[in-house]
Amino acid sequence: MTENFQFALKKTDAGARLGEISMPRGTIRTPAFMPVGTVGSVKAMYLDQVRETGADIILGNTYHLMLRPTAERVARLGGLHSLIRWEHPILTDSGGFQVMSLSALRKLNEQGVTFKSHVDGSLHHMSPERSIEIQGLLGSDIQMQLDECVALPSEPREIERAMELSLRWAERCKVAFGNQPGKAMFGIVQGGDIPALRIRSAEELAQLDLKGYAVGGLAVGEPQDVMLKMLEETLPVLPSEKPRYLMGVGTPDDILKSVARGIDMFDCVMPTRSGRHGLAFTRRGKVNIRNARHAEDMRPLDDQSNCPASRDYSRAYLHHLVRANEALGGMLLSWHNLNYYQELMQGIRAAISEGRFADFMAETQEEWAKGDLERA
User: Which residues are recorded as binding substrate (predicted)?
Assistant: First the structure.
């Protein structure tokens, strides 16, 4: 641990990077996957379990926590870490994604965004300064700039307008953040699927000399090859000595291919959301536990796993729980999926350390391609 925010790049293997972020609340091993705890809860999981899967950091959402229980209440209760019993690093998304996802409930101008609450219809204004203030009240360790995220495909003129607004907001967020020892503010590269705009966004953000940089506005409707192309255009422009975070991504395959291009941090709701809907990610690819083939299969999802949800519960029982809409089914599959994601990240880090990431990637994809176990 350290009193300051520090990123050490320990090794590279072609484009893949092995590193470590040191902060007062703990160390984040990179490449890292951050489970999503939008409202201060990783859905269907105890945070002790989340930690045991290997997570060094979780994510919270500024917009949702602003609405309830409110940032001011969280601050009065001792901060988000204390409230949710997670004494390790927390990153908070600024609310920029909700600018896109809640487009029918917001008005946007140069000063910020006015949201109509999806909870009770009340109006809330979020400027870049207010976003940073909320994240400070929550006690977030890594705070994200407020940005405007646009869905793809969009018109080039609209993508450029949003990118330029996000750059102006980044400057305002940097001023509002000021100097917070031990904490960090990250900028967010925008520019849609237009390489020239991505490059310009990355170049101008790099000039702000922030603690880290995220790539936003991807995995929002574009094909995977477009996302990867944007990373290939963007990452060489960002400072190599700063961490790089790909927001909202993604599938295990997305993660492998993005690590190969130089991404250090990821977050996604996919492991928990999929688990609640009966879908498991395994070393043999995706398994839909709802399928009738699992109804009398007493084998576990993965007998090699160190996770009880993966190793100790039969497919037949998981199938029954999911088909019966029992909450325990979603809990066990979320636990399994989060553990699988963290096992994948651990394997990635070990492979980079050993200089064999390309082989690890090929072997992992080969296992996925085999598909699930034959019928029992």
Answer: 93-97, 147, 190, 217
225 catalytic, yes or no?
Answer: no
Catalytic residue among 56, 141, 264, 267: 267
| CA distances (Å), origin 118, targets 25, 41, 147, 373 | 33, 19, 20, 43
Q: What is the pTM of this model?
A: 0.96
As annotated, the residues of the chain forming the CATH 3.20.20.105 domain(s) are 6-30+61-267
Annotated binding residue 360: no
pLDDT value, residue 297: 97
Query: Which superfamily is assigned to 6-30+61-267 in CATH?
Result: Queuine tRNA-ribosyltransferase-like (3.20.20.105)
Is 19 annotated in some ligand binding site? no
pLDDT at 1 over 80: no
Asked whether the beta carbons of 96 and 144 are under 8 A apart, the reply is: yes
Closest CA to 349 of 6, 73, 42, 12: 12
In which band, very low, low, confident or very high, does the pLDDT at 249 lie, cut at 50, 70 and 90? very high
